[in-house]
Every structure is written in C-alpha cells, then in structure tokens.
C-alpha cells in the first residue's frame, strides 16, 4: 500500500499560526480551519473572559455536538430511505 500524498499548509486560527498536514486538499484544510476560527470567535464573543484552553475545549465540544446531531439526522434519513425502499 503506497503512502498517500500529504498536503502541508499554514493556517491562522484565532490569531495563531498552525502548520496542518493532511491527505485533503489545501482548500479543504483552509475551510476546516476557517470553521474552527469562526466557532472560536463566536464562543469568545459570548464569553470574553475565557482563557485559550477553555475556549479551545468549548469549541471542540460545540463542534462535536454539531457533528453528533448531523450524524443522528443522517442515520435517521438513511433509515427512512431504507424503509421507503422496502415498502
């Protein structure tokens, strides 16, 4: 099995530079970084006294919450589609 080509890109998240390496395109990595940056800024605007660690953890919790809700909806739609096929 050959090694997949990696993309290395530097992104700015909440005023900090991060070097990200991944198998996805640079535009995908930039999009992900932008979403994280936006979410951190959203949470920070509502809670301006949070330190960076707490802000990062709350951002992770919020993003994972959104992921879980989307996964639940996806699974529900998948079951609905399967049921409609079976009917």
Report on the architecture of this protein:
InterPro entries: Bac_CellDiv_Activator, Cell_div_ZapA-like, Cell_div_ZapA-like_sf, Cell_div_ZapA_firmicutes. One of its GO terms (cellular component) is cytosol. It is found in: Cytoplasm. Homodimer. Interacts with FtsZ. Keywords: Cell cycle, Cell division, Coiled coil, Cytoplasm, Septation. By secondary structure, the chain is of the alpha+beta class. It has one domain (7-86). Helices cover 64% and strands 16% of the residues. It has helices at residues 26-46, 52-86; strands at 7-13, 16-22. It has a two-stranded antiparallel sheet with strand order 1-2. A hairpin with a 2-residue loop joins β1 and β2 (16-22). The longest helix is centred in the last third of the chain and has 35 residues, at 52-86. It is flat. The mean pLDDT is 94.
Strand content: 15-25%
Instruction: Give the % helix.
Output: 55-70%
Largest sheet features: 2 strands, antiparallel
Largest sheet, spatial ordering of strands: 1-2
**How many discrete structural domains?**
1
Instruction: State the distance separating the first and last CA atoms.
Output: 42 Å
Order of helices and strands: EEHH
Structural category:
alpha+beta
Number of helices: 2
Rg, nearest Å: 18 Å
Mean pLDDT: 94
Spans of 5+ residues with little confidence (pLDDT < 50)?
none
Gross geometry: flat
Number of strands: 2
In short:
With 87 residues, the protein is of the alpha+beta class.
Please describe the structure with a list of short key phrases separated by commas or semicolons.
single chain; 87 residues; alpha+beta; 2 helices; flat; septation; Cell_div_ZapA-like_sf; Cell division protein ZapA
